[in-house]
């Protein structure tokens, strides 16, 4: 019986000794490992405190951000990852150049028709010929008659009559 109690006591002592001898990974070691992983993204950084990795910075897309978090969680000794990072907004699409739907010869004819009215501008806006400017009621009527006589089809008359 004494032998059994002694063996049990020895087993308990060895168990406690084994648990207390388990090596805890220091934050400095975790910081080194985490920094090595995060250097693949120059816009991100990581700081380890009490076994928790704090990820910050900007990622190009959600997939690269998720992959980085998974890599940090895979480090032995990291308890959790606090994500304080963001995903960059997608770059705006390049504007599409479109050719004007208005024939330059038609535009020139209209400019010649309104040359006596210096406040009137002839422009192509959103692919349509557009007249803009400030004119009197009499001038507006003369301009409309002149442009309609050219038989150019549809145009935007955005003249402001004073």
Write up what this structure looks like.
By secondary structure, this protein is of the alpha/beta class. The chain folds into two domains: 27-87, Histidine-containing Protein, Chain: A, CATH 3.30.1340.30; 104-161, Histidine-containing Protein, Chain: A (2-Layer Sandwich), CATH 3.30.1340. Helix content is 41%, strand content 24%. The chain has five helices and seven strands. The chain has helices spanning 2-20, 27-38, 62-73, 104-113, 137-149; strands spanning 44-49, 52-59, 80-83, 86-87, 121-125, 128-135, 156-161. Strands 1, 2, 3 and 4 form a four-stranded mixed sheet that branches. A hairpin with a 2-residue loop joins strand 1 (44-49) and strand 2. The model has no long low-confidence stretch (mean pLDDT 82).
Can you describe this structure in just a few lines?
This protein is an alpha/beta fold and 162 residues long. It is built from five helices and seven strands; from the N terminus they run ααββαββαββαβ.
Main attributes of the structure:
4-stranded mixed sheet; alpha/beta; 3-stranded mixed sheet; Histidine-containing Protein, Chain: A; 162 residues
How is this fold's topology laid out?
Blueprint: H1 2-20, H2 27-38, E1 44-49, E2 52-59, H3 62-73, E3 80-83, E4 86-87, H4 104-113, E5 121-125, E6 128-135, H5 137-149, E7 156-161
Parallel strand pairs: 2-3, 2-4, 6-7
Antiparallel strand pairs: 1-2, 5-6
Strand content: 15-25%
Order of helices and strands: HHEEHEEHEEHE
Mean pLDDT: 82
Helix content range? 40-55%
Shape field? rod-shaped
What's the total count of β strands?
7
Report the C-alpha radius of gyration, rounded: 38 Å
Q: What's the architecture of the largest domain in CATH terms?
A: 2-Layer Sandwich
């Amino acid at each position: 019986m004494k032998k059994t109690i002694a063996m049990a006591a020895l087993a308990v002592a060895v168990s406690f000794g084994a648990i207390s001898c388990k090596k805890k990974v220091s934050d400095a070691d975790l910081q080194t490992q985490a920094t090595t992983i995060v250097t693949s993204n120059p816009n991100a950084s990581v700081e380890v405190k009490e076994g928790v990795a704090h990820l910050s910075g900007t990622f190009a897309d959600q997939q690269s951000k998720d992959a980085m978090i998974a890599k940090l969680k895979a480090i032995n000794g990291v308890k959790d990852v606090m994500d304080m990072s963001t995903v960059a907004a997608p770059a705006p699409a390049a504007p599409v150049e479109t050719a004007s739907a208005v024939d330059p010869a038609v535009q020139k004819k209209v400019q010649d028709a309104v040359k006596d009215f210096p406040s009137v501008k002839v422009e192509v806006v959103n692919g349509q010929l557009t007249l803009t400017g400030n004119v009197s009621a009499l001038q507006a009527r003369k301009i409309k008659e002149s442009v309609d006589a050219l038989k150019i089809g549809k145009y935007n008359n955005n003249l402001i009559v004073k």
